[in-house]
Design goal:
Helices cover 53% and strands 19% of the residues. It is α+β, with helices and mostly antiparallel strands. The chain has two domains: 2-54 and 263-407, no CATH class; 92-230, no CATH class. A hairpin with a 2-residue loop joins β2 and β3 (106-115). α9 runs parallel beside α13 (371-397), α10 runs antiparallel to α14 (401-407) and α11 packs antiparallel against α13. The longest helix has 39 residues, at 21-59.
């Protein structure tokens, strides 16, 4: 308590003010550094979560394919998977067909995925991503089966709800000597437009019924693969490896992390690098706190001599000045956290920062404040503040009483 009382008195200037200009600048510098760090890490965390949610919502936790052949009958395969991985909550078979969209003179590659309408929402979270129209995959028996497309694909081909769009599927044809292929064409009707969360999905994916996709590909009543949902997304890596090992080489499994491995690895690396770089702003602010303490030590030579004459040890004097620096650092850190959270709230609510989706996979800047990030920022800032206070505190503690009284006037 005595140390805190001394620090309280030392915070006051000769005019009775609690902080002088140098102290105020130190606090502001600390707040700006901490606030910037909070915003940057929150944006990176939001970006990572948005990518994860988009991948899991649209593709599920695990993708299961059979190499070069349709899947085994689901009545045999699904019980086998459930026995291998009890954490499986649902499975959804799908049909995968790659083709080209032809509309209004424009041409582009697309992926048509067909699902059983009654099973798709057990595994994938697609309906909440609908921005226009209805979530209607149809039955496949319609003349123009309904299809749900990404909003970037809709913008590219100028498609609206109710528009008809043609999907062309090139097929190998040995009877055609010149071109070597024939074209299978099927028309769909746009029933819904969806925000799929990632630009690469938004520009390519078309969702329809399994029957319509089978007709487009000429596949018959078979499925290309199986999408699997688990109780926890973090279990996907181990579950995928177990399924691949037990089913053998004929099967290919891919979890949601592996399907975007390079992207998630880059995000983790950027988090570390940016944290270190932005931390240097806090280091600069800590130098300001150290300079403030040096000035305080110079001004308190007489007080230090009195304390030493009264029997104060060097350790206690170090605590005096270290606490003074820690108080400045604590005030700057708290203000920085408040500033950073306020900026994050503004970004999340206003969405005023433009993000090129073709480059960053997202069309808006996501923000997610994680408590572990706040704790890490506070811990690192307090550590830096403590280290920066040691040099001036030790200098003041080593002062000889006679030398201090000599400078006191």
């Amino acid at each position: 308590m005595f140390e805190l009382w001394v620090v309280w008195r030392y915070m006051k200037t000769r005019r009775g003010q609690f902080f002088n200009l140098v102290s105020i600048l130190s606090i502001i510098g600390m707040a700006l550094g901490i606030g910037t760090l909070v915003v940057v890490l929150s944006v990176i965390s939001g970006f990572e979560s948005a990518i994860k949610n988009a991948v899991v919502d649209v593709t599920g936790h695990i993708l299961l394919l059979k190499r070069g052949a349709p899947l085994d009958p689901l009545s045999e395969l699904e019980p086998r998977l459930q026995k291998l991985v009890p954490q499986i909550t649902s499975t959804t078979p799908f049909v995968h067909v790659e083709g080209m969209v032809a509309h209004k003179g424009k041409l582009g590659g697309v992926v048509v995925e067909g699902f059983e309408p009654n099973d798709v929402e057990k595994t994938l979270t697609l309906r909440p991503r609908l921005v226009k129209g209805d979530f209607n995959l149809g039955t496949g028996l319609e003349k123009f089966p309904p299809v749900i497309i990404g909003q970037a694909l809709a913008e590219k081909f100028e498609l609206q709800i109710g528009d008809e769009v043609s999907v062309v599927l090139p097929k190998n044809n040995s009877t055609m000597k010149v071109l070597g292929f024939s074209a299978r064409l099927k028309k769909f009707k746009v029933a819904g437009i969806m925000d799929m969360g990632m630009h690469q999905y938004d520009t390519r994916f078309m969702l329809t019924s399994a029957k319509a996709a089978q007709d487009l590909g000429g596949l018959g009543p078979v499925y290309t693969g199986l999408r699997i949902k688990l109780t926890d997304a973090d279990l996907a890596r181990d579950a995928s490896f177990l399924i691949s090992t037990e089913l053998g080489l004929m099967y290919l499994t891919r979890d949601w992390v592996e399907s975007n491995h390079n992207l998630f690895a880059a995000i983790k690396l950027e988090r570390i690098v940016i944290f270190i770089v932005m931390l240097f702003m806090t280091v600069a602010a800590c130098f300001n706190i150290a300079s403030t303490l040096f000035i305080s030590v110079l001004r308190r030579y007489g007080d230090i001599s009195v304390f030493k004459t009264m029997g104060a040890t060097q350790a206690r004097l170090v605590r005096f000045f270290s606490l003074q620096g820690m108080v400045l650092g604590a005030l700057g850190s708290i203000l920085g956290i408040a500033l950073g959270l306020s900026v994050c709230l503004v970004i999340a609510k206003t969405n005023f920062i433009y993000v090129p989706a073709a480059v960053y996979h997202l069309n808006r800047l996501p923000v997610e404040v994680r408590m572990i990030d706040i704790i890490m920022i506070l811990a690192s800032s307090f550590l830096l503040c403590f280290l920066s206070t040691l040099a001036p505190a030790i200098k003041g503690a080593k002062l000889h009483p006679v030398e201090g009284l000599k400078y006191d006037s």
